[in-house]
Amino acid sequence: MLIRNRRLRTGEAIRSLVRETAITPNDFLVPLFVVEGKNVKEEIASMPNYYRYSLDLLEKEVKELWNLGLKSVLLFVKVPEKLKDNAGTEALNPDGLMQRAVKTVKNAVPEMLVMTDVALDPYSSFGHDGIVADGKILNDDSAAVLAEMSLSHAKAGADFVAPSDMMDGRIFEMRSLLEDEGFHDTGIMSYSAKFASAFYGPFRDALDSAPVDAKDIPKDKKTYQMDPANRDEAIKETLMDIQEGADIVMVKPGLCYLDIVRDIKNAVNVPVAVYQVSGEYAMIKAAAERGWLEHDAVVLEQLTAIKRAGATLIASYFAKDAVKLIY
Ligand code: PBG
């Protein structure tokens, strides 16, 4: 035998010398859930050890993230039920929770990169990412509101807006409005290949944003999010978003879609984000709680696999755990 592959695995020194992929704090975008109130830090039932923060505690949390070397956050807000409607009215409130959250983070840590979620579901009385009429989700009317929402976030100080809705043409609408209004440097991270996945359940608990069960309201998001069976279409969606002005594209969820991540990585020349979603987080937590999986090892293995598949950056609820583990 001339070739013995195991020579490169004899000890940690040689293994680390030839290792092809490493995760670092630079890889992460930290999703954060924000609620109204004071001194609120509520654990999300289906996401153990993950919390919703009121603005005062959000400030503390982002300082801690910064000190750990985590330099980018992705903000989501839980909107009080009474402020929800079918038009995204509250989403455009210049003094809304998202707009105040952006300012809070920027005041606490000015260098922190702030990305905002742009989608109507947290604001929708029907739990949809767009305006609902006659049992349908209206595309163009929704895209117009999403563009206004992006502008409102940009005015509040967001560095990037991140549309997670999957309406057609919304990147074009958003980019055009931001350019017209002088926000040339506000970036767009598009959820470009976002699948109609069953892994979003815990997130919908976190924001109380699941589609409502009512007559004439679609019960799922399959008319706008992608069919998990489709691969070519993921590339089409992504290339279109780039043409419409997306700076960063995204594949979501992570683990079940790593073939798509690699296809897209090979097809585009912009950064590719991967969202390791709430259900992926919950599965690991649940199995680890039962002693069925080794938590830390599984976390690092999954994050490494996501990066190896081609992720430039990873939105992950494990970001804090991961940076503590790698140092
Ligand atoms: C909705 C949105 C979802 C997530 C991010 N933005 C859920 C959905 O599409 O229903 C999911 C994130 C996660 O599960 O961690 N605009």
Structure commentary:
There is one protein chain. The protein has 327 residues and is of the alpha/beta class. The chain has a single domain, classed as TIM Barrel. It has eleven helices and twelve strands. The protein has an eight-stranded parallel β-barrel, surrounded by eight helices. Strands 6-7 form a two-stranded antiparallel ribbon. Helix 2 packs across helix 3 and helix 4 crosses helix 5. The model has no long low-confidence stretch (mean pLDDT 97). The structure holds ligand PBG. The site of ligand PBG has 12 residues, from helix 6.
Features:
TIM Barrel, eight-stranded parallel beta barrel, 11 helices, 38% helix, binds ligand PBG
SSE-based structural type: alpha/beta
Question: Which architecture would the CATH scheme give at its second level?
Answer: Alpha-Beta Barrel
Low-confidence parts lasting 5 or more residues at pLDDT below 50? none
Provide the residue-averaged pLDDT: 97
Give a short overview.
Belongs to the ALAD family. It is built from 11 helices and 12 strands. It is an alpha/beta fold.
